[in-house]
């Protein structure tokens, strides 16, 4: 599939019982990954756990039954590290997918083995998907959409991170803002509901008064 929407069901650190203390949405679109994880419990409730824009692809050892993927970060809400971001996937009988690997646990400040369980959303055929990149020189900003889900993620030269998550309201032609972090209007304009025929890969469009390049576009 060229594009998909994933939500996290749970995470288990270092063999402990699975929990879910975030509302996590990941858009995977033609080799791009846009990821926003927001704490929904605990002392950090309402803040970003982790957010990235990355190039994603298979690496050595990947198989059809157990894909092994690596995410090379373009922007990251956390400080950069030398630890590779990669995981091995397995599809469960109920259709969910587990991801196994090692990553930073913000609660212990340690890199720990983890098992994440993901659910892929079932989306109607024919819905649009795309990734666009800002051409402004003072920011790295990306907006991705798959069907009724959209993420906007950006980082300025001073390291400030901006993020928003929108969903189309069922039966209405408007976006609903689910989360917003930072003064997103400066770098992350609201998307139009409809994708015009003039949008095509590699084309520069104007959005919110600034130029954006269409990195990839298509229909489910």
Describe the structure.
There is one protein chain. With 220 residues, the chain is mostly beta strands. The chain folds into 2 domains: 118 residues, Lipocalin (Beta Barrel), CATH 2.40.128.320; 92 residues, Beta Barrel (Lipocalin). It is built from no helices and 15 strands. Strand 12 and strand 13 form a beta hairpin. It is globular and about 50 Å long. It starts with a strand and ends with a strand. The mean pLDDT is 94.
Mean pLDDT: 94
Which structural class should the secondary elements be placed in? Answer: mainly beta
N→C terminal distance: 8 Å
Task: Provide the domain count.
Answer: 2
Give the name of the CATH architecture of the largest domain.
Beta Barrel
The CATH superfamily name of the largest domain is: Protein HRI1, N-terminal domain
Oligomeric organization of the protein chains:
single chain
Strand order of the largest sheet: 1-2-3-4-5-6-7-8
Order of helices and strands: EEEEEEEEEEEEEEE
Protein name: Protein HRI1
InterPro entries: Hri1, Hri1_N_sf
């Amino acid at each position: 599939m060229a594009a998909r929407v994933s939500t996290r069901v749970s995470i288990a650190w270092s063999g402990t019982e699975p929990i879910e203390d975030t509302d996590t949405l990941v858009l995977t679109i033609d080799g791009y990954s846009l990821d926003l994880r927001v704490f929904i419990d605990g002392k950090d409730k309402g803040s970003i756990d982790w957010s990235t824009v990355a190039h994603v692809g298979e690496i050595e050892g990947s198989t059809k039954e157990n894909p092994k993927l690596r995410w090379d970060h373009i922007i990251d809400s956390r400080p950069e590290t030398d630890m590779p971001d990669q995981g091995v996937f397995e599809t469960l009988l109920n259709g969910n997918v587990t991801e196994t690997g090692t990553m930073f646990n913000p609660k212990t400040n340690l890199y720990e083995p983890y098992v994440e369980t993901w659910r892929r959303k079932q989306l109607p055929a024919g819905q649009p998907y795309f990734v666009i990149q800002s051409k402004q020189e003072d920011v790295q900003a990306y907006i991705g959409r798959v069907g009724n889900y959209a993420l906007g993620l950006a980082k300025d030269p001073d390291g400030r991170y901006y993020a928003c998550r929108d969903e189309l309201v069922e039966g209405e032609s408007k976006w609903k803002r689910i989360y917003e972090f930072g003064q997103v209007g400066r770098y992350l304009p609201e998307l139009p509901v409809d994708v015009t025929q003039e949008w095509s890969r590699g084309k520069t469009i104007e959005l919110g008064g600034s130029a954006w390049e269409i990195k990839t576009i298509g229909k489910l």
